[in-house]
Amino acid sequence: MISEALRGSINDKISAGIYVASHFIVLGIIALLTGQPFIFPSLGPSAYLMATGETKRAAGGYHVIGGHFVAVITGSIAYHPIADGLVATEELGEAGRFAPEIFQLAASSTVAMVLCTVGMLAAKTNHPAACATTLIVALGLLTGPLNITIIMGSVVILYVLHEKVLYPGAKRLGLEPDDPRPVDDDDKDP
């Protein structure tokens, strides 16, 4: 016989897997239909935070959407004047040691991370996954107005899908995940 504690743990794991799969199936279909990058690395940690029932400090809409918004703005502010036109996947594979392009990408990334950190703290958006988004932009992987719009569209779709479809469905089915971390009084939304 499975104990209640273990059963809850299994339910949490199952619901988290279903959540994450559902997020990425929907975004994957959108990417397939549009041919646009509606899936990118920093969505993984965002989906994980929502799927595992992490505290509102880390997963609320203000934090998820606001954090990624701060990230795309700060990534763009760093990338365009410092490394415009460079793409990390190309430069790091082709440029030699001490290449100015690598210095530019490293500088862009550093400036983006500093600005993103300060920006999220100032805006009180606590979403660490957004730091990956600022690097995606600062390294030239997704830049320009269309890609920034796609990034933000993906984040909004991810969050709305979670809040309006997946979470209510999981709750009705008894698969609502328990937050794996303790919540302190200091961790509340602004």
Automatic annotation (TrEMBL):
Chain ranges passing through the membrane: 16-40, 61-82, 102-123, 135-161
A family per Pfam: TM_HPP
Lineage: superkingdom: Archaea
Residue intervals of the HPP transmembrane region domain: 12-156
Entry keywords, A to Z: Membrane, Transmembrane, Transmembrane helix
Protein name: HPP family protein
Organism listed in the record: Halalkalicoccus tibetensis
